[in-house]
Amino acid sequence: MTHDLLIIGAGPAGLSLALALRNRGLNIGIVERQSSADIANPAFDGREIALTHHSMEILKGFGLGDALAPDISLLARAHVEDGSSPYCLDFDPPPDRQGPLGFLVPNHAIRRALWQAVSNSADITLLDEKNLSHLDIDNAAARVRTTQGDALSARLVVAADNRFSDSRRLMGIGASMHDFGRTMMVCRMEHTVPHQHLALEWFDYGQTVALLPCNGNISSVVITLPAHENARLMALDEVAFAREIERRLKHRCGDMRLASERFGYPLVAVYAHRFADTRFALAGDAAVGMHPVTAHGFNFGLISQEILAQELQAALAGRADLGERAALTRYERRHRMATMPLFLSTNLIATLFTDDRDPARLARKLALRVGKRLPFFRQQVASRLLAHHA
Ligand SMILES: Cc1cc2nc3c(=O)[nH]c(=O)nc-3n(C[C@H](O)[C@H](O)[C@H](O)COP(=O)(O)OP(=O)(O)OC[C@H]3O[C@@H](n4cnc5c(N)ncnc54)[C@H](O)[C@@H]3O)c2cc1C
Question: Do residues 180 and 354 make contact, with C-beta atoms less than 8 angstroms apart?
Fold first, then answer.
């Protein structure tokens, strides 16, 4: 079967790219190992995705505003604490800007809304329950085979098949990986003290805790711990779990009750050595897999599809081939510039603020004091979240 574009992976990044390129006369195929029923009705996976204003504009531009509306929770402000230090950082929207700092939307709701839009697009076909097994690419075409025996070909293949991308490996593209040796436990909890839509990031000693305000008196509780501690916490019964979380949070949320399943995510950050090759590009987590602490993973995924779609459309407008190398090289350069500084600084923050040794504790205190005295720095972070253009 021949396509113009084959996307490997129907995750949020792959579906977004397909939507960005629909209605342009392209025949787009998405190869996905899950079934179409699972893609249409993704299960809750614990992730509450903090989205910037720019990301929300992209999703609304895809026509997802109404589908996402019931699941959006506003992120009014953010507050960062270190251990028991009295120094903390507050991030507020600048006084001249209307609206919240950002938005929180459950990952499964984003996936469901994206899929609804894709399934209504006549030029996009989902090839579900197909597992990529071979990639054979040359100047003439990109050929894809699946373990189910399919032989497909396209002018361009874009891999959006997660941070441990099979496609990336099949193409011989390496990646820098940083294993933080920690697992992130996420779940929803109901509590008696209202959150007032404030997000908390608390770099405590021995644990990092984030509280993300969902609609109602519900927060997403995110705790980063060594794997064995995480396994113990996940195995507790609901009542013992709630009591332990109340204690770990120093009772700041009042009485708490588990309101969802618990999920554990091992923390490994990944940055591909290259984002492009002949008739091939990486997008989403397959290109840049972020540590979630600065909440940029899918925001970067949306930026990757946005830049790639712009470059591909420019190539098509100039009557160039869809797999033209020059367009892919420009994508690689722009996406690297958009992501590398934040990738490195996020890894630094995640490493420093999970290191409880004395020199690191001192550096952590200093970092917060300096940040507190630099309103310009805080405004920069806030405006990044509020930015309307990448
Ligand atoms: C706990 C947690 C919290 C997060 N919070 C935030 C946040 O606040 N803000 C934010 O922006 N981001 C956040 N993220 C990151 C965000 O979830 C990811 O960046 C995003 O889901 C990545 O999307 P993707 O489409 O690139 O990859 P994925 O969602 O991993 O999708 C990849 C798809 O490819 C398919 N696939 C894989 N291999 C193959 C194969 N060989 N053949 C066929 N199909 C294949 C998979 O089945 C899957 O459907 C968070 C992540 C975690 C873990």
Answer: yes
